[in-house]
Amino acid sequence: MRSYGRACVQDFLGDFIVYRNLIPIDSRLPGLPELRAALGLPASLTPRKSSPEYAQVVAQIMNRAQVIRGEKAAIERLIYIGDTRVNDGIAFANLLTADRWSGASFIGSETTEPEETHVESHDGATILLSNRWSALHVFDAFCQKRGIPINERTAVVIDLDKTALGARGRNDYVIDAARVQAMRRTIRELLGDRLDEAAFEADYNRLNQPCYHPFTTDNQDYLAYICLIMQSGAIAHEVLFDALDRGKLKQFVQLLTWVDEREGRLSPSLRQVHKGVKAALSEGNPTPFVDFRRNEYRITVDRMGSLDDSTPVEKMLQEEIVITHEVMQIALRFRDRGALLFGLSDKPDEASLPPDGLSNYLPIHEKDTHVVGGD
């Protein structure tokens, strides 16, 4: 591994980027609010990345981006670069279906196992999976061999989190660590010295397992709220986990009702958080714990480009969120051939963009950080 200097995601994706709220950074592009009625989406729905509705919205945004950049030819093909076989694989397949595009996807996730790259094809979706990000250098030839030209009629979608930034298996630990640090900071701001660091870590690590995903829906806002409630003493750790393990708690809204019944045990500040989470969920907002996400934003940005350029690469990968050199290089190569580049992130806008009052902070995609990759 080596450092290739500094850059920001905007250097290769520009402002053709959407975060979780599906409102493009480039204000010339339509977002979910403008597209909702035409697509027949309920007012309370903010679709998540793996849903067909999400793909419908993104396809419309990309088609408009193609026009805005001055291309008269419509998009015909899709290239998708991501880091998870399930979530990104489903998003890729849904996008193909949304506008009847053809294409291919690369899914990378680095491991210490011997290098392995293989192809999967399902219902017209062709995916090259590899346990090395360096395998991206063969993806171009792979597409050509499959008769998928990369040109002005091709849209290239690049996942931001744990792909362009913090590559999975190589640098994703730092993204996760920033999120956990944000949870800890948020709970400490609300509870002070009542925060039990060891108990918080144990609760979070236990809740963040797939066996609890039916309850948490793998939503980190939910995990932050649950950990806060347990740390506050409103519901004891063993009581909550017993209810989960016995199947008495199956949906997150059940927990909110349970807390309603114990509202007298909450301090005024916790009562305000609880009411805010309930109100956000009633409006269909998938990011109900705003204070936590704002802390996540600040901590994430502080972990980008923070180290000196002479820092050993191994230390950069352990402490800083870096750009994946292989992803940046193939993006620039495809852009030079005329392809439309578009960035997707399921990270909440509140954790990606500076809130009012932080004028000296930049959006995550504009923040310079080190670029690290293979030789």
Overall description:
By secondary structure, the protein is an alpha/beta fold. The protein folds into two domains: 221 residues, no CATH class; 125 residues, no CATH class. It is 44% helix and 14% strand. It contains 15 helices and ten strands. The strands form two sheets. Strands 2-9-7-3-4-6-5 form a seven-stranded mixed beta sheet, with helices on both faces. β5 and β6 form a beta hairpin. The longest helix is centred in the middle third of the chain and has 20 residues. It is globular. It starts with a strand and ends with a strand. 43% of the residues are buried.
Describe the protein's topology.
Blueprint: E1 2-7, H1 10-13, E2 17-18, H2 32-39, H3 52-68, E3 77-82, H4 87-99, E4 102-108, E5 117-122, E6 125-130, H5 136-145, E7 154-159, H6 172-191, H7 197-207, H8 213-216, H9 220-232, H10 237-245, H11 252-260, H12 268-282, H13 290-302, H14 313-319, E8 323-324, H15 325-336, E9 340-344, E10 369-373
Parallel strand pairs: 2-9, 3-4, 3-7, 4-6, 7-9, 8-10
Antiparallel strand pairs: 1-10, 5-6
Helix pairs in contact: 2-3, 3-4, 6-13, 7-9
Low-pLDDT residue intervals, each spanning 5 or more residues: none
Radius of gyration: 21 Å
Percent helix range: 40-55%
**Terminus-to-terminus distance:** 6 Å
Spell the H/E element sequence. EHEHHEHEEEHEHHHHHHHHHEHEE
Structure classification = alpha/beta
Strand content: 5-15%
Mean pLDDT: 95
